[in-house]
Structure formats: structure tokens, C-alpha cells
Amino acid sequence: MDLFEYQGKQYFAKFGIPVSAGGVAVTVDEAVKVADASQYPVVVKAQVQVGGRGKAGGIKLANNADEVRLHAGNILGMDIKGHVVKRIWVEHASDIDEEYYASFTLDRAAKKHLLMLSAQGGVEIEEVAEKDPDAIVKLHINPVDGLSEKVARQAAVDAKIPAKALDGVAKILVQLYDCFTAGDCDLAEINPLILKPTGEVHALDAKVSLDGNAEYRHPEWAEYSATEELDDREQLAREKGLQYIGLSGTVGIIANGAGLAMSTLDVVNQVGGTAANFLDIGGGANADQMAAALEVINFDKEVKSIFINIFGGITRGEEVAKGIVEAMKRVDLRAPIVIRLDGTNAEEGREILASAGIPESKLLSKPTMLEAARAAVALANGK
Amino acid sequence: MAIFVNENTKVIVQGLTGGQGKFHGLRNRAYGTNVVGGVTPGKGGQDVEGIPVFDSVADAVKATGADASFIAVPPKAAAAAILEAAKAGITFIVCITEGIPAQDEAKVFNTLVRDYPKVRLLGPNCPGIISPGKCNIGITAGEIAELPSAKGPNVGIVSRSGTLTYQALYELKQQGIGVSTCVGIGGDPVPGTSFVDCLAEFQNDPETHAIIMIGEIGGSAEEEAAEFIKANVTKPMSAYIAGVTAPAGKKMGHAGAIVSGGKGTAQGKMDALREAGVQIGLNPTEAGSLMAEIVKGLK
Q1: Using the beta-carbon criterion (under 8 Å), do A259 and B162 form an inter-chain contact?
Q2: Chain A residue numbers touching B244 (CB-CB < 8 A)
Q3: Which of A133, A330, B89, B242 has its CA 20 to 30 A from that of A294?
Q4: Quick one: A123 and A237 in the same domain?
Q5: Could you tell me the residue range of the domain that residue A331 belongs to?
Q6: Which CATH number fits domain B141-298: 3.30.1060.10, 3.40.109.10, 3.40.50.261, 3.30.70.1560?
């Protein structure tokens, strides 16, 4: 789960990381109120989960309430690369002497935590990596050992952070690592990490991605899920507890297992179609799950055909088939289904589907993944 | 021969009295796996259809001489369960638990490396391992696995995905090709056992003559495998990578399956494997057919 900047800053603050005084606003009046309390000048920042806000006009400096009113009015409702701005963050504008970069992630290849630190912040780190890779210090941290202030300070020295900022940077690195580990982040990034003329080091931006698997031990995350940007289909799928990702094609996909679901998308694509979604129905694939999945797919107006791709392992083919027949009674489908049922007791399953009295125009059974994909794509294309 | 597990492997099930543990544990026993005990704290002395239950892994190991453990406990308890097994002297741990926080996984993995270097962890979030006819630990339906033939050629399977593992087993069964061992390494960001670990074992296993590998988007495990294959694997291979059409930035079901910053794409993985001499199928069936051709050539 990706956090908005303001949520990331609030999350940072819980771990003692210094951030600017400010607040979130959803209306112009609220923005002015926050600005008055934060001390002018202030920065008005669009809260969207996409890069390039500044260039799009989503970040503005305001010296007084009138300017806040003007900028907040412009930015709220603005469309930035397809993301509509619903919230803005208003904070006291910081004086900046220098800009650095710091982040913690998991390096999957090394199976260790990775600190990336650079004295060149404020720009895309990918750009720095390309133009001047030596300007980024990469340090692996063994999760068993953690990160000490001493090691953090040495990393800062290696990154050529100036002497006057070393103590401040080291301290924030340890706090950020604590946020990353105890806070169960997939990513904790500060860009830019700034040095003020007063000598303080401070997080001017916050990029935080949380590990959904750790949600059970973070009840405080509930407020973040409430603001997560999901489309209507994804919202419905979440309510039904399904693993669903909305895409923009015309073939609705239901498969059991994440790998098979991904594979189904690929095969549909290979035969000239486009998938409307990714949906992993899980191992069981019983009538309730199937009905829920069909409801979500049916909700998507773009769907012209539905491809159900099930491989029976422990769940036997006849159970899956019964589930589909039952689910089709409960959901009034707009689009025809093409099913490929394979694996344990697939024959018996196909028999049940064939004898259920459902016309072929509504439910078509195909023996292989490829044939089923072709049939589903043909139906979606109106053939 | 087979890799990691065989007919002599003695297995305990951590979480045997729970829904998943009981269901799969009993199925594994019915398949012929030597399931010698179960562990559920507070339920020592009971039994599950004749399988004795112990309070701790240490007790179970002492009483049964078990060397492998099948962990089927909820995410909250999984990290501690893995370390308990390692501490008690279990050397092969299969953890099917889905949903363990990545921070816990990273810590457990590195703790095993530091304190229990001889222990192998398979998973978490994996379907398990089956050496057909000998041992089945995990959730694989044993009946879809073709028995290896004494004369060969037999194929080893290694996969990151559960259902695609079954698919691979099934494709081989359709073709009548025997399987030496099928390993599901799981779709999480920090798997205990990697493609490379399995490829090294298969390369050294006299009963394995060819290898199928099923990968997916995210991370760089397939690229690392390609490097390893180029340098070390002489047995013929086919592979399939799921997620060619997956959009960037979205986790496709598995915690580890995500294309981020242009890295971990299916295309990049396929290119790397192709360059290492692996035949690439564009779908699981094609990978199976390619393997059938390979096997025909070996006969």
C-alpha cells in the first residue's frame, strides 16, 4: 500500500523524523486555516501518488492567505497524469542549503536491507544512478544486526555528506531504518532530505510503501486503506475479499492461483485479446467464491466475455463445476463464459457443466488453455 | 534418488491440529510420506488419526527422530515456528504459510544463515515439494505427479507459482514423462530456497535428466538462475515465465510478483534464460511440449 506524502510525513513523525509543520486540506478554506497555523510562507502541494507534480503545477509557494486561496483553488481537482487531486498538503516553506537522498528497501537478490544514500538529492534517484552512479552509496544491512548510528554516520561520510550535516543525517538514517523495519515498510524514502541554514536536517518529502502482509499488527493503518486510490471495480472486489486488479481490456479473467492468473492474461494477449482484470480466486473455487468473482467481473461494463481458467489440484474438477453452475444461477451475467477446466477429475467436472442445461451461448467449455483463450477472445471481439 | 526429500524423510507437521495442517498432513501421509508426528503447543499427548501430537518440535524430534518439518500455521506464528524447528535440529523445513510480513521473512532467513547454516527452508508461501512415489510435503495433489522411471529420462521441476507447478506436473503426466522431484519455491520476496539452490541439486542428481523451470515477474531470481545455468547446468532445460502482460507497479497476487522501475519484467527474464541455452515456452503447455521434445532426444 502506497501512502500519500502527507500520510508518509505523519508516519515519519511517529518515528521521530523531523518534518515541516503543516496539515492536510480538502477545501480551500481548510488550506487557509492550515497555512495560517503553519506560518508564512507556505508550500501548497497536491497529494497524488504519481511523480512530476511540480512540473504539472501541483506544487506552489504562497506568501499569504490570498495566494493560498488562489493556489489551493487551482490545485484541488487538478488532473495530474490521470490522478485527480482530492487533497492538498500545506506546510511551512523551508529554507534549503542542500538536498540529499536517503532510502531503505529490501534487496531481494541479496536478501538483506539496502540503504541508498546520496549527497545529490531533490532529483529523481534513477537519474543520479544513470549519470553519476558513484554518487549513490549502497549499503547492505543484515536484518539480524540492524543499523547503528556509527555505521549510518560512516555511510554518510562515504556519500560525501558535508561534515556539518553528518550528525543530523546519521540520526535520521537510524530513525528512518526504525520506521522501515518496525513500521513494516516495503520502501521508506526521503527525497529531498534537506540541510537548513540553521544546520538542522529535515525530511522535506516522504515516500512510504507499506507491506500489506503486516497489516494485522498495525491497526493504525486502517486510515490509510480508507484513502487508497481504487477504482470502483477494485473497491467491490476488496469488499468481497478477492485478489483483483482492474485492467482496461474486454476479456474478464478468473483463475485459481496467482501464477495461473498471470499466465491466463498472457495467453489472452498472445491470441490477440486484452484482459479486463487479474483475478485470483484462490485454491477452493467453491460456489460462494465463484459467485463473488462473477459479480465483480459482471460489474465491469467493458467485459465482453469471461474466461474461467481452473486447474484442479486438491480441489476436484466436479466441485469447481458445481460451484460454477450454482454461481451462474445467482449472478445474472451480461457476457458469455468460456471455461477451461483441467487437472484432478476434470472429466467429471466437464460432464457436470455439459449436463447442467446451460446453452453454449452462455457457457462454452474448451479442453486447453489456448483453445479457451481463442474462444474467449473471439467472443470479446464480437465473432 | 531425488532432491531434498526421499522415502527415508521423516516429517512432522507444525500445526497438525489446525484446519490446513490436518487436511494436508493427512493427505501427505495417505500419499505414503513418512509423517511421524505433529506439533501444537498445549496439545501434546493427543493424536490426529493415529499421528502423535507433541507440545514442541524438540519433543517431537526426540520421540520420532524427524528430520523434516511441514509448517502450516498462521502468518503471526510462522516466523517463530520456523526458528523453533531449526533450533530443534530439523534440517529441512517446508513452510506453506501465505502472508508473512516481509520484515519477518528477511529476519528469519538471515537468522537461519547465521545460526543454522545446515538448515534448508523451502517457502514460505509455497506449495511444497514432491518426489513422486517417495515423499510429498505440502499441498500438491500427489495423483497429478508422474512417477519417475528407473531407466529415465526423468524431469525435475522448480517453480515460483503453485498452480503453475501443478500445470507443469500435469503437462508431463499427459506426455508420460516421469518426475524426479518437483519443488515449489514460493512467490514471496525472501524465499528460503532459490531457483539456483534447486538447479544445483538437480544438476547433481543422477535421477534427473532434464529440468523445467517456471518463473514469474518481479525480483531477479530468474536472471540469477540464468547466470548459474550458463556456468553450471549441463542438463537440458525448458522454462516458462508468467506475467508478460502484467502492468508495472501492481502486485499480481504474489507478494513478490511486481514489476518496479522497469526491473523484473518477464521479457528480461526470458531473454536471460534464452541466452543461457534454455528453451522458452510462451505458455505452460508450450514449455511442456518443449520438454517432451527434449526428453525424446534423451531416450
Answers
A1: yes
A2: 266, 269
A3: B242
A4: no
A5: 232-380
A6: 3.40.50.261
Please tell me if residue A222 touches chain B, with a CB cutoff of 8 Å: no
Same-domain check for residues A247 and A368: yes
Q: What is the dihedral of CA A350, A351, A353, A356, to 10 degrees?
A: 180
User: A124 and chain B: CB distance < 8 Å anywhere?
Assistant: no
Cα–Cα distances in Å, from B240 out to A150, A368, B173, B281? 46, 17, 17, 5
A260 vs B contacts (CB less than 8 Å): 161, 163-164, 167, 242
User: Among the CATH numbers 3.30.390.50, 1.20.58.90, 3.30.70.920, 3.40.50.720, which is that of B10-122?
Assistant: 3.40.50.720
Give yes or no: residues A255 and A370 share one domain.
Answer: yes
Contact state of A108 with B159 under an 8 Å Cβ cutoff: no
Rounded to the nearest 10 degrees, the angle between the axes of helix A163-182 and helix A149-158 is 130
Q: Nine-digit cell at A175?
A: 530513525
Q: pLDDT by residue (tens digit) across A93-113? A: 999 999 999 999 999 989 999
Reply yes or no: is the peptide bond before residue B41 cis, omega within 30 of 0. no
Hey, are the CB atoms on A181 and B103 less than 8 Å from each other?
yes
CB contact under 8 A, B106 and A113: yes
Question: What is the C-alpha radius of gyration for chain B, rounded to an integer number of angstroms?
Answer: 18
Best of A180, A314, A341, A345 to disrupt the B interface by mutation (most B CBs within 10 Å)?
Answer: A314
CA neighbor of B19 nearest in space, from B7, B10, B27: B27
* CATH 3.40.50.261 segments of chain B: 141-298
B78-104 pLDDT tens trace: 999 999 999 999 999 999 999 999 999
Cβ of B140 and A313 within 8 Å? yes
Residue A296 Rama label (left phi>0; alpha psi -120 to 50; beta): alpha
Q: Which chain B residues contact residue A261 at CB under 8 A?
A: 252-253
Mutation target among B166, B173, B188 for the A interface, most CBs of A within 10 A: B166
CA atoms of A35 and A42, how far apart (whole Å): 6
* Minimum CA–CA partner of A259 in chain B: B161
Task: Report DSSP letters for A13-36, one per residue.
Answer: HHTT--B-SEEEESSHHHHHHHHH
Q: Which residues contact A382 (CB under 8 A, 6 or more apart)?
A: A304
- B242/A266 CB distance under 8 A: yes
Nearest to A265 among B214, B240, B246 (CB): B246
Q: What is the ipTM of this complex?
A: 0.91
- How far is the alpha carbon of A110 from chain B, nearest alpha carbon, in Å? 9
**What phi and psi values does residue A303 have, to the nearest 5 degrees?**
-70, 125
What confidence tens digit (pLDDT) does each residue in B109-140 have?
Answer: 999 999 999 999 999 999 999 999 999 999 99
